[in-house]
């Protein structure tokens, strides 16, 4: 959660930083701010006396002029007035999702020191901020945030080292972040230097390499219209970006005898494969609807080059040792939210195809234990961003226990890829909408490919059955497109039911995770009470809640025990509930009030049903006038525990 953008180069920084904030707003939108190094004062030389000029409804006692211009406002990025500073070619920005302190102007980032010569933005949580604040003594604090200790610590560090040979911002940042406990991505500027210094530990940061310019952000979408050449920083890294585009990275030293805590390192430069316009709305009113409609393309990208139907083979560029595959006794899947439901879908497939016990655990609750043998366990982290704090914590616990680890993620260079033995990318392209859509389908598809590969390698899946599943996978993009082509019917249903009291989603077998995911989508963006249930559990309590104002949405497809599920749907109908069903093309359930047809793709049919549920949630939310891309209390990437 929260977004960071930084720019230093030879162009006006303000519009570049502001555009980056707009690109990142999906990561947090309760306040935003910009800090710029005023061009007239930025010499890159001596240490400063400070001073800043601040715009917006913030602390009224901020100095009227000086070396920094700071603008910050509560609310969405559009509330922020872009500073008129054409000579400022270095700046940082932040869009916030509250952790410490309510969303007010004063709590918005950037935060400055007492001399107002240092500005800092920060993602994550500084767990020992109260202790550090107490140590700072007479420093004046103007916010309720944990972040504000950082500029004051930097101020103290620079003051105390003023007599050293080369006291500078980078050395100060190194010394300060080594005192921080928790997770952070910290980005700092000083009034006298066209330069950005940043550090990460537990929160993502990526460098963008431009021509005579450098960018820094929590996500490549912040600067993708300027460059696709990037460097992903690693935990412990400190990076120094200068005005000529030079980028220096410093990593913790392994030699305790070295005088400085970090040494220069080379980090690879990689090319982001998708174009900048992939992260734009392309004429859609909301990112979410655009990304729902991108699912056929995303699925084709997921499958591309990986499926050989004739040979009944899958190539995921993962080399699990043959001896390990022979002895593995359990596959563990750890994930959160939508990724957790993708894992539940996949677990059924892995057990069926690979004949190995598969468990799925919410990452925040995961512990490796209960007599498991790590040498016979494969732990899979499923995370769209690759930065989900709970999932990273879980996979690190599995690794510490000695289990083999694998990540299924959408993000090249993300933290999870460095925490595991192997990684598989879902190739869904950028997903900006807070409510996950295309990544769910691509996660399940990638995990289905893994299930086939494991089954073939272990000799538990016949070539004939593997070909059948792979044919269904190849047919999935077209089946999803058929569901999208029926959107007008979903709009009609959404208009009919948008004002109901509550919604129940039912499924069996592979339909259960889809029912849970369907309910989650409606909660996230429509703010309606929605619950997903295994259909057989309806009569074990939840049926008491069913009324004629409680529509039931059901997965009635192959892979979802449709006949048995329909029995439970009928139980709800006899209590007055209307029933909406996603039905396999060759089946008829005449008692349904609304039916959506699902093409024949075998065990993947519940995935197509999920597309109908996504569209239903979207159009119900749209009828209610909800902020679909910015749902209340939520942000895209949960990078704190």
Structural notes for this entry:
This protein is of the alpha/beta class. The protein has three domains: about 5-270, Glutamine Phosphoribosylpyrophosphate, subunit 1, domain 1 (4-Layer Sandwich); about 285-485, Glucose-6-phosphate isomerase like protein, domain 1 (Rossmann fold), CATH 3.40.50.10490; about 485-625, Rossmann fold (3-Layer(aba) Sandwich). The chain has a nine-stranded mixed β-sheet, with helices on one face. A seven-stranded antiparallel β-sheet has the order 6-7-8-9-13-14-15. It has a five-stranded parallel β-sheet with strand order 20-19-21-22-23, sandwiched between helices. Helix 3 crosses helix 4, helix 6 (about 295-305) packs parallel to helix 11 (about 440-460) and helix 12 packs parallel to helix 16. The longest helix is centred in the last third of the chain and has 23 residues, at about 465-485. The radius of gyration is 26 Å and the shape is globular. The model is unreliable at about 40-65 (pLDDT under 50).
Superfamily at the CATH H level of the largest domain? Answer: Aminohydrolase, N-terminal nucleophile (Ntn) domain
User: What is the CATH architecture assignment of the largest domain?
Assistant: 4-Layer Sandwich
Q: Could you list the spans in which at least 5 consecutive residues all have pLDDT below 50? A: 40-65
**Biggest sheet details:** 9 strands, mixed
Distance between the termini: 11 Å
> Number of DSSP helices?
16
Helix content: 25-40%
Q: What's the rounded overall pLDDT mean?
A: 88
CATH topology of the largest domain: Glutamine Phosphoribosylpyrophosphate, subunit 1, domain 1
Number of strands: 28
Tell me the quaternary state: single chain
CATH class of the largest domain: Alpha Beta
Proportion of strand residues:
15-25%
Shape: globular
SSE-based structural type: alpha/beta
Q: What topology, given as strand order, has the largest sheet? A: 3-4-2-5-1-11-10-12-16
């Amino acid at each position: 959660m929260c977004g960071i953008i930084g720019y230093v180069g030879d162009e006006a920084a303000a519009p570049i930083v502001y555009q980056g904030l707009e690109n990142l707003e999906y990561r947090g939108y309760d306040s935003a701010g910009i800090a710029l190094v005023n061009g007239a004062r930025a010499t890159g030389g001596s240490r400063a006396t400070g001073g800043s000029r601040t715009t917006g409804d913030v602390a009224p006692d901020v100095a009227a002029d000086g070396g920094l211009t700071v603008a910050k406002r509560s609310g969405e990025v559009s509330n922020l007035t872009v500073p008129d500073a054409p000579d400022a070619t270095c700046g940082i920005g932040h869009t916030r999702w509250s952790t410490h302190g309510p969303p007010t102007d004063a709590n918005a980032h950037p935060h400055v020191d007492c001399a107002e010569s240092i500005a800092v933005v920060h993602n994550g949580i500084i767990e020992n901020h109260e202790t550090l604040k107490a140590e700072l003594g007479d420093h004046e604090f103007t916010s309720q945030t944990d972040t504000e200790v950082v500029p004051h610590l930097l101020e103290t560090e620079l003051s105390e080292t003023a007599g050293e040979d080369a006291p500078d911002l980078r050395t100060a940042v190194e010394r300060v972040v080594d005192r921080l406990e928790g997770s952070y991505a910290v980005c700092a500027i000083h009034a006298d230097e066209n330069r950005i210094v940043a550090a990460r530990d537990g929160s993502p940061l990526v460098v963008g390499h431009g021509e005579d310019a450098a960018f820094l952000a929590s996500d490549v979408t912040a600067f993708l219209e300027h460059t696709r050449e990037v460097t992903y920083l690693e935990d412990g890294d400190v990076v120094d970006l200068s005005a000529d585009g030079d980028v220096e990275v410093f990593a913790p030293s392994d030699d305790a005898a070295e005088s400085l805590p970090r040494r220069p390192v080379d980090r690879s430069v990689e090319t982001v494969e998708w174009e900048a316009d992939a992260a734009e709305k392309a004429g859609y009113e909301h990112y979410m609807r655009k990304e729902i409609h991108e699912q056929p393309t995303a699925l084709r990208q997921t499958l591309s080059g990986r499926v050989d139907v004739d040979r009944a083979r899958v190539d995921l560029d993962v080399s699990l040792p043959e001896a390990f595959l022979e002895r593995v006794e359990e596959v563990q899947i750890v994930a959160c939210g939508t990724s957790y439901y993708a894992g539940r879908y996949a677990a059924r497939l892995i057990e069926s195809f690979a004949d190995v016990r598969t468990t799925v655990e919410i990452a925040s609750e995961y512990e490796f234990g209960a007599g498991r043998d790590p040498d016979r366990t494969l732990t899979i982290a499923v995370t769209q961003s690759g930065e989900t704090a709970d999932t990273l914590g879980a996979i690190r616990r599995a690794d510490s226990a000695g289990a083999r680890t694998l990540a299924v993620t959408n993000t090249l260079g993300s933290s999870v890829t460095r925490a595991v033995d192997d990684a598989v990318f879902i190739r869904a392209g950028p997903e900006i909408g807070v409510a996950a859509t295309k990544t769910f389908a691509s996660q399940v598809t990638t995990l289905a490919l893994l299930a086939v590969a494991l089954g073939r390698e272990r000799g538990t899946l016949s070539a004939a059955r593997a070909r059948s599943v792979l044919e269904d996978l190849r047919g999935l993009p077209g089946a999803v497109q058929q569901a999208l082509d029926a959107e007008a019917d979903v709009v009609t249903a959404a208009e009919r039911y948008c004002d109901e009291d509550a919604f129940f989603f039912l499924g069996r077998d592979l339909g259960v995770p889809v029912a849970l995911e369907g309910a989650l989508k409606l909660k996230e963006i429509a703010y309606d009470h929605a619950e997903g249930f295994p259909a057989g559990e309806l009569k074990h309590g939840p049926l008491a809640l069913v009324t004629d104002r409680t529509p039931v949405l059901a997965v009635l497809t192959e892979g979802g025990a449709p006949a048995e599920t329909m029995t439970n749907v009928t139980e709800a109908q006899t209590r007055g509930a209307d029933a909406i069903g996603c039905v396999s093309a060759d089946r008829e359930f005449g008692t349904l009030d609304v039916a959506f047809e699902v093409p024949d793709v075998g065990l993947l049919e519940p995935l197509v049903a999920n597309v109908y549920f996504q569209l239903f949630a979207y159009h119900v939310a749209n009828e209610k006038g909800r902020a679909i891309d910015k749902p209340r209390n939520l942000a895209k990437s949960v990078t704190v525990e």
